[in-house]
C-alpha cells in the first residue's frame, strides 16, 4: 500500500529534526505553554510541519490528526488517517532528558495499521505492522508474560499507597515509550486514569499489541481511533496474564474519575 522504506526514512528524519533542537545534545529551543501545564516547543512545530508535508505526499488519500495541528473534521471522511504526536514527552525534551519520541501511526477504519516511534536520544526505532509483529532496532519484541499482579514492574516516579504492591522502574515522560517498555518486556504494566488523546497511544499501542501485550482503555474495552472526539479514558498496556487483575484493581478509581467529568 505504501513504500515502507520511505516511511521509515521520513520518521527517522523527523527524529533527526527534533534531535538537532534537543537541549540534551546542545541544541537551543524556545518553549511555551499552550495551556497551563501543557508545554510546547519549536521542535513540536518543526516536526509536525515536516511530517504533515512528507506523509501527505507519501499517502495523499489519508487524513491527518496531530497534537500540533488544528483538528479538521474532514478527517472523519477518511478510512485512512495519519495520527501523529511530533514530540511525545515534551517535558523531557525541554529539560534535556532522553524520554521523548516522535510517534507516527497509520489508522485504517479505526484500527492502527502501522506504528512507528523514533527515539533518537535513546538510539531507538520501534516499529510494528498489524499482524506482522513488532521490533526495536530491527530486533523482534516479545512482551512480558507475567501472571502475578503483585510485584509487576510499572514505569513510575512514585506510587500511590494503593499501588505499592507494584515495582517501580524508570519512567520516561513519553507515554508512548512507557507503553513500548511493555512490548520490550522492560515493564509489565502501564496504566493511566485520565482522558488522553489518540495520538499519544496509537503507534505505541500497536507496537505493544503486536509484541503480545494486552492493550485496552482503563475499563478493559478495545480502543477505537479517529473518533469525532479523539480521546479515550485511560490506557492499559500489560502482560496478558495480569490484564484482568489490573482492570479490577483500577475499577473503583476509574469509575470515580469518569463520574466527575
Walk me through the structure.
By secondary structure, the protein is of the alpha+beta class. 32% of the residues lie in helices and 27% in strands. The chain has six helices and 16 strands. It has helices spanning 4-21, 42-58, 90-94, 175-183, 198-210, 240-260, and strands spanning 31-35, 38-41, 63-66, 80-88, 101-108, 111-119, 124-129, 134-136, 139-140, 153-155, 167-169, 189-191, 195-197, 214-216, 231-233, 236-238. A seven-stranded mixed sheet has the order 3-4-5-6-7-8-9. A hairpin with a 2-residue loop joins strand 5 and strand 6 (111-119). Helix 4 runs parallel beside helix 5. It is globular. The N and C termini lie far apart (41 Å). The model has no long low-confidence stretch (mean pLDDT 95).
Quaternary state of this entry equals single chain
What is the tally of beta strands? 16
The span between the termini is 41 Å
Give helix % range: 25-40%
What gyration radius follows from the Cα positions, in whole Å? 17 Å
Shape call: globular
Mean pLDDT: 95
Structural class: alpha+beta
Order of helices and strands: HEEHEEHEEEEEEEHEEHEEEH
Instruction: Describe the main β-sheet briefly.
Output: 7 strands, mixed
Helical segment count: 6
Low-confidence stretches: none
Placed side by side, the strands forming the largest sheet appear as: 3-4-5-6-7-8-9
Strand residue percentage: 25-35%
Amino acid at each position: 500500500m505504501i513504500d515502507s522504506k520511505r516511511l521509515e526514512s521520513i520518521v527517522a528524519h523527523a527524529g533527526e529534526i527534533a534531535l538537532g533542537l534537543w537541549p540534551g545534545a546542545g541544541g537551543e529551543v524556545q518553549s511555551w505553554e499552550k495551556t497551563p501545564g501543557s508545554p510546547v516547543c519549536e521542535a513540536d512545530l518543526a516536526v509536525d510541519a515536516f511530517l504533515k508535508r512528507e506523509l501527505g505526499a507519501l499517502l495523499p488519500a489519508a487524513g491527518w490528526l496531530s497534537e500540533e495541528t488544528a483538528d479538521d473534521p474532514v478527517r472523519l471522511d477518511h478510512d485512512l488517517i495519519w495520527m501523529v504526536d511530533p514530540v511525545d514527552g515534551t517535558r523531557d525534551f525541554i529539560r534535556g532528558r532522553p524520554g521523548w519520541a516522535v510517534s507516527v501511526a497509520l489508522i485504517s477504519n479505526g484500527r492502527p495499521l502501522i506504528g512507528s516511534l523514533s527515539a533518537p536520544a535513546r538510539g531507538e526505532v520501534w516499529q510494528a505492522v498489524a499482524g506482522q509483529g513488532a521490533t526495536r532496532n530491527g530486533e523482534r519484541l516479545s512482551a512480558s508474560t507475567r501472571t502475578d499482579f503483585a510485584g509487576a514492574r510499572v514505569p513510575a516516579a512514585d506510587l500511590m499507597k494503593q499501588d505499592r504492591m507494584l515495582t517501580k522502574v524508570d519512567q520516561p515522560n513519553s507515554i508512548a515509550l512507557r507503553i513500548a517498555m511493555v512490548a520490550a518486556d522492560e515493564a509489565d504494566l502501564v496504566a493511566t486514569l485520565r482522558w488522553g488523546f489518540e495520538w499519544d497511544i496509537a503507534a505505541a499501542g500497536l507496537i505493544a499489541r503486536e509484541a503480545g501485550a494486552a492493550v485496552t482503555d482503563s475499563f478493559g474495552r478495545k480502543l477505537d481511533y479517529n473518533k469525532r472526539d479523539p480521546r479515550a479514558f485511560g490506557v492499559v498496556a500489560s502482560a496478558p496474564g495480569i490484564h484482568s487483575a489490573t482492570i479490577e484493581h483500577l475499577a473503583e478509581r476509574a469509575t470515580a474519575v469518569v463520574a466527575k467529568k
